[in-house]
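tool_call: predict_structure(chain=1)
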Amino acid sequence: MSLRRIALLAFPVLTVAAAACFSDPVYPGDQVLGTFRFDATIDWARTTCKPGGETVQLGDGGTLRFEGTFSRNADAGAGYLTVQGFSRDAGYEGQRVVSLHRVGAALPGCGTNCEGSQIEESLDVLLLSSSQDEAVGRRCSGLVDGGVPGSEDGGTQPPGPTPNGYDVQRACGTLTDDFIPGTKNCTCTKPCRAVYTVEGTRVD
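tool_result:
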């Protein structure tokens, strides 16, 4: 199974893509933070799934790309991540956003009659404002030990609403896919994990 195919499966959008309307997207919540184009690169040091492995077969798919939109209810605290018309829950805490979702999925390494296999996916990112993005050189690799520049670092400001929209320009973090074998008629027995570093640049 190619890396690109796995990423598409991991985001459970294929089941709803046909019904989604892309010409006039409507995002849940009352505050849209922005739409980002993400580049995801496999991190083999943190990945336990092996090329030709039992559960899934990871290949060298290069950099994967997808777009996602962050939105939330500003007062209630509920948040969302929308990918290709499918909105899933996301938790917002300061500048950190975590979206966890589990979906049933056929895993080729588990056999055609395997039942109950799943993928659990977590997107965990830090959001940077325009001034913070500039302070780290407009790239996620400029972050040091996950630290985010604060107001004491050259007068940077955290992400927040402005008269011209929400000030957020970059998202830096990790995408993790846990592949979970099924419980019936399955030839695979061991779960495994694929970890990607992700960098998102705001496009809208």
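agent: The longest strand covers residues 31-42. Proceeding to next step.
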